[in-house]
Specification:
Distance between the termini: 61 Å
Strand content: 5-15%
Shape: globular
Largest sheet: 9 strands, antiparallel
Oligomer: single chain
């Protein structure tokens, strides 16, 4: 092919760009953020913009690059739906893009928005912006200027295949990214071709037009190609996304080894900071189980501190015991230390992959704290975290716990009181831990220290303060946990009259379905994942039995009391307090062991639920 022929073939792809086409891409592409600042729409003024920002913030949970996290700006534009990554690390999204996703699938628009934004984030992470800048420059010119810009470029070799490869890789990795934080990649293709529908919305015309001279014909052809490729990619993505979701579900259910198996299988193909952190959490959770057994047997001294991995309903404080009366199990102590050290190894990997992620350092500090290695805790916090991020409530909280473990109970008590007074003066704001988790941990550990010092009245006073603070900030779960500590048994569970099910089936049922499915293997076992139009998902074994099931979107009810989109405190009113609350990169979960049911929360709303076997 001649160079000029290569140019003619390349231009349609350039003009299609990532999410625009033709002139719809040209205007926003060539301008930087400075040009668009006057057109930025505040999330405070527009609920749809706030919705897009929430989706973007959720995706950033899995941001593993060493760059500073990108920022999202939604802008007014007359050029239709588009999204763009800028070389300065910002991402632009047209307001029309949000309207388009709402029009295409209003109930699951968040999932479509997640894919559009994840695609741009992947380009940022992969440092693909060198060609973005040039392509946008070309697309902004008239045909004569385009030819002049392209003249002399060697396009007949690997340029076009490399561009297509980068776009295909961004589609693939974008699907993985959105799945890793809880969004459903199947929404992109199921129920119609998203890529073609996006292009049709730009041109306000159907892609079925037969006139090859129509200016949108090239964009429609590219969209159909991407849709075909995306369907093929989804077979691979479905396997990995399912493994990550199964790992999150197993962790929420308290099945640490199963969760580690699933996260490890996912991480072999797609290693990331989030995966290593979650693997480390499984080891840390096992170490905490051993610590609790030793504490209950009176084999450990010191306050029984709460570790902010999951909010349990009854994490009782254990009084301080003299060291001479210890009756520990040497083997259990050895296993506790081994699990804590394995957790530390995973968190160290997470830190190396993403040195700017604050939460990984705190988890590393918790692992060393559980291993009773005070010098390493101080080394992580005072030597790495504070010089990089500054002192904050989580670091002061962990250092107070180190003080107590070292025997300075009075100093630790003063440290806790300073923290609590600060929390009561003003909300903690945005930080590495959710606000309710941070507040609960601070009050619980201050109360545990008071009990260890034999001051039960001080413990009750602290929980009363926690309850008042929860009322002030509207933290329903935190309020109920504080009341339960003051009056145990007050918030007894209220099992409903209905049995939880997903699309009419319970775990262990033999099921059949004539819907879209994909096959995958897990440790030599053949499994199939079935997906329903209402957002329900089944995983079925080779014998046709339901082994996993979850609901992620659509219009669905859980029994006669819960609906997708309900406020986060609604499960507490309908089902009572959960067995535990768990925070993962994919969201927060309320687990009800008596029902074998876990409810996923996102942005203070119910975003889904899944079934599990409480006993594994």
């Amino acid at each position: 092919m001649t160079t000029s022929g290569a140019k003619r073939r390349w231009l349609p792809w350039l003009l299609l760009g990532l999410w625009g086409c033709g002139s719809a891409w040209a205007q926003p592409a060539v301008q930087g953020l400075g040009y668009w600042k006057p057109f930025v729409i505040s999330a405070d003024d527009d609920p749809a913009v706030a919705r897009a920002q929430r989706v973007f913030d959720t995706l950033l949970r899995a941001w593993d690059g060493t760059r500073v996290e990108p920022s999202l700006y939604v802008v007014k534009s007359s050029r239709g739906p588009w999204a763009a990554s800028l070389a300065d690390g910002n991402i632009l999204l047209s307001r029309a893009a949000i309207d388009t996703t709402l029009a295409l699938d209003g109930e699951r628009a968040d999932h479509l928005l997640a894919f559009v934004l994840a695609h741009e984030l992947v380009h940022q992470r992969a440092d693909d912006l060198w060609h973005h800048k040039f392509f946008r420059l070309v697309g902004s010119q008239n045909p004569q200027q385009q030819q002049a810009l392209l003249r002399g470029l060697e396009l007949s070799g690997q340029a076009l295949p490399d561009l297509e490869r980068r776009e295909a890789q961004a589609d693939h990795d974008g699907l993985i990214l959105m799945a890793s934080v809880g969004y459903d990649p199947f929404v992109v293709v199921d129920g119609g071709d998203f890529f073609t529908r996006w292009v049709e919305s730009v041109w306000a015309a159907p892609c079925e037009r037969q006139n090859p001279a129509w200016q949108g014909a090239g964009a429609c052809a590219q969209a159909r190609t991407r849709a075909t490729r995306s369907r093929a990619q989804l077979e691979a993505v479905a396997t990995q996304a399912t493994l990550f979701r199964l790992g999150a579900q197993a962790f929420a259910a308290g099945h640490w080894q199963a969760a580690r198996r699933d996260f490890s299988a996912y991480g072999r193909e797609f290693p990331s900071r989030a995966v290593h952190a979650n693997i480390g959490l499984t080891y840390l959770a096992e170490a905490l189980d051993i610590r609790d057994r030793l504490s209950e047997a009176g084999a450990l001294s010191g306050p029984r501190f709460f570790f902010p991995l999951l909010l349990e309903l009854h994490p009782e404080a254990t009084p301080l015991q003299p060291r001479g009366r210890l009756r520990g199990n040497a083997e259990e102590r050895k296993r506790l230390r081994q699990y804590a050290e394995r957790a530390a190894q995973s968190f160290e990997r997470a830190v190396r992959l993403e040195p700017q992620h604050r939460g990984s350092y705190l988890l590393l500090g918790l692992a060393y704290l559980l291993a009773d290695n005070a010098p390493m805790v101080r080394g992580v916090l005072e030597g790495k975290y504070i010089p990089r991020f500054g002192s904050d409530v989580p670091t002061r909280l962990l250092l107070a716990m180190v003080q107590a473990q070292g025997g300075d109970l009075s100093g630790a008590a003063r440290g806790f009181e300073q923290i609590l007074t600060g929390l009561e003066a003003s909300p903690p704001g945005v930080g590495p831990w959710p606000a309710d988790l941070l507040i609960y941990t601070a009050f619980h550990n201050a109360a545990a220290l008071a009990q260890a010092r034999g001051d039960d009245s001080r413990s009750d006073e602290l929980w009363q303060r926690a309850a008042r603070l929860a009322q002030r900030d509207g933290q329903a779960l935190l309020f109920r946990l504080a009341v339960e500590q003051l009056r145990p048994g007050t918030l007894a569970s209220r099992p409903p009259a209905w049995a939880p099910s997903i699309h009419g089936a319970r775990l262990g049922d033999r099921v059949q379905a004539s819907v879209s499915s994909s096959a995958f293997w897990l440790e030599g076992e053949a499994l199939s994942i079935y997906r329903f139009a209402n957002g329900a998902r089944w995983v079925v074994d080779a014998d046709g039995r339901l082994v996993n099931a979850w609901q992620s979107g659509g219009q669905a009810r859980l029994g006669d009391g819960l609906v997708l989109g309900d406020d986060a405190d609604r499960p507490l009113k309908v089902l009572g307090p959960p067995s535990r609350r768990i925070e993962l990169v994919s969201g927060a979960y309320l687990a009800y062991d008596a029902l074998g049911l876990a409810i996923r929360l996102e942005n203070n709303r119910i975003s889904g639920w899944f079934l599990y076997h409480p006993d594994g």
